[in-house]
Amino acid sequence: AARITFVDGTTYTIKSDSFVTVEQNSIGADKTTRVAVNITSGAVDLTTGSWASPDSKAEVSFANARASVHENSRAAVSSDAGGEHAEITVSAGAATMNVGSQQVEIGKWERASFGTGGQVTKSSVLAPPELAQPLNLEPLIVPDPRRAAIHFTWSNVPEATSYKLKVSTNAMFTRVVKETTSQGPSVDVAGLDPGDYFWSVTATDT
Question: What global pTM score does this model have?
């Protein structure tokens, strides 16, 4: 995995087993910036900040589509090597995607996906739960860390039928040490060695 930050502050987090090409990285005399990457296969998360020029662009192309992610936005893009399935999910702000002659506006917590036929399907996605406990940077001191059960809690998502908890030793979640599913907004996890950990929860409705 890798993280690339461009001159305008746009950050592309490239997941493992991805092939990505940097297409553009420029800044004009009027401070207009242009950044773009192409995904041949794999997945990329990108975050944009505040731009000095309203004409700036942060783009990602994949399969036969090109998405322009708006200012102060977050999106996740994935595409398989054969172009049989590709999708973009916006978790903050908005994005505009062009597939052939189709132009699709994607808002917060919306997903646009398409396959080899090129027909775009847009759907809503569940917002992630808000993490409650343990608190960020909260130290947990116990006599026997391996035997201690750590209590994880998060906010309830009304539409969710289950939740998936992941615990990793790094912020990019490429080294997940615990993964479990819960029907409610809490779960106890034991067997963690002493050290620093990151955790995340996703909600599902299936």
Answer: 0.79
